[in-house]
Amino acid sequence: MTELKINRTFRVCGAFAAAAFCTCALVSGAVRAFDVKSVEQSVVRLVRYSDNQQKAFGTGFVVSNGGYIATNRHVVGCNSKEKCHVKMFVQQGSTQDRVDLLSTELIALDLELDLALLRLNNTLLHPLPLAMEEPEKGARVHAFGFPVAGDTGIGGSGLSNPTLTEGIISRVETGRWDTSSGSTLRLVQHTANINRGNSGGPLLDDCGRVVGINTALPRPERLPDGTFLQPNGIYFASHAGSLADLLKRSNLSFEAQSSSCVPAAAPNSIVIWLVTVLSTAALAAATIAFVRRPQLITETYSQWMRRQPRPSGTCPPRKDQRGNDDPSPRWQIRGTDGNGQPVHFVIDEALLKESSNGLIVGSNEQVAEKVINDDTVSGQHARFTIVNGILHIEDLKSTNKVSIDGGRPIDPLVPKPLSAGAEIELGETRLKVLRI
Q1: Helices 2-21 and 269-291: angle between axes, nearest 10 degrees
Q2: How remote is the C-alpha of 202 from its chain's centroid?
Q3: How deeply is 323 buried, as exposed, middle or buried, from its count of CB atoms within 10 A (0-12, 13-18, 19+)?
Q4: Which of 63, 187, 298, 414 is the most exposed place for a label (fewest CB within 10 A)?
Q5: Cα distance between the two ends of the chain
Q6: CATH code linked to domain 302-308+326-435
């Protein structure tokens, strides 16, 4: 009942905010209509191949004449240009016999901004302009990309046809992709649905200008019953100004527009009112979620576990001596990767016991629930499981092996027990196991 009252309060407050917010005034700027066909021709599907030929997917868009493509750094999967040993391709479609891939060259990347620039030779694709003004709260936006889930049943030329979703701007704030360190940047929160595979795709205003680069969504919230809830309608992009900075540092020309966008066909006042009410409610729910470290747009262990069917007849949570729900034991895995970047994740023992496949750690977001961006970590490097109540780790035939407490590499496909305080080596990634 309390939750219902809170939700009603949010809706009432949202209605008053919408009434004040939607006092419409004409804004100076060019009056233009959103041209879907023109924009989508500049959006490309990206495919990453590592040394072991494992694939990962993302989205990019042409941003400068000469075939220069912008995307996320985590789509490329490298932390520095000099140590990057992956191959990036633009996929133009496929048939039963072949997949059409066009090779690209890595031009620049920025780890803290999570941005990268690629070059595709011999292309006439038109670059998209960047909007330098920050979008207004409530402004309509469009997201193009290639969500992996959208490939179901699709083949051939359909694989090069991007998905379009729409939403509004919820807010623009200063933040970091990694809340523990790194430079600050302007983050655009919006409601245009994005998923795994949308990383690096453009977020555009009604005039077809890039206002942001889609990058992340908030991490799932753990509920008292041990389940996880993924917030809906909350997605994050870096503002186009961050991309402009990287282009300038790379000495690349681009089209920057500072005028406001006035769409040719504005929605009627009733639609504006309804959309703004909904966005206000979403903003209230997002206040806590935003301060948590956002997840990159890859399927996480928590999301994967929530998709697994729960066994019938599940017992209710046990009570401790004080009458409280007894939370399941958890393990904290903390350390640094081969590039000195922090690695930190938590393993819930109860959820891990329910999984038939354990928690897979590796560098390929398509096959690993926990992704480590380290060239010395294989796509599927190791698996965590619970055996007789004890946390175990298993080497999944990785290239650079798994070692425990500085010993010799463990045998592949043989789970080894881990005690609290154990130190693990995955290639050049160093991790420590803590019980919490």
Answers
A1: 120
A2: 13
A3: exposed
A4: 414
A5: 33
A6: 2.60.200.20
pLDDT, one tens digit per residue, over 176-213 is: 887 666 778 999 999 999 988 999 999 999 999 999 99
Mean pLDDT of the chain: 79
According to CATH, where is 2.40.10.120 located in the chain? 27-298
Compute the distance between CA of residue 249 and CA of residue 215 in angstroms, rounded to an integer. 21
Does the predicted TM-score (pTM) go above 0.85?
no
Q: Domain 27-298 is of which CATH architecture?
A: Beta Barrel (2.40)
Instruction: Using pLDDT thresholds of 50, 70 and 90, give the confidence band for residue 55.
Output: confident
Q: Which residue spans of the chain are classified as CATH 2.60.200.20?
A: 302-308+326-435
What's the CA gap between 56 and 365, in Å, rounded?
6
Name the pairing type of β-strands 342-348 and 260-263: unpaired
> What token pair was written down for 351?
């959820």
Q: At residue 302, what is the residue type?
A: S
Contact 257, 131 (CB under 8 A): yes
Q: Which residues pair with 393 in a beta bridge?
A: 384, 416
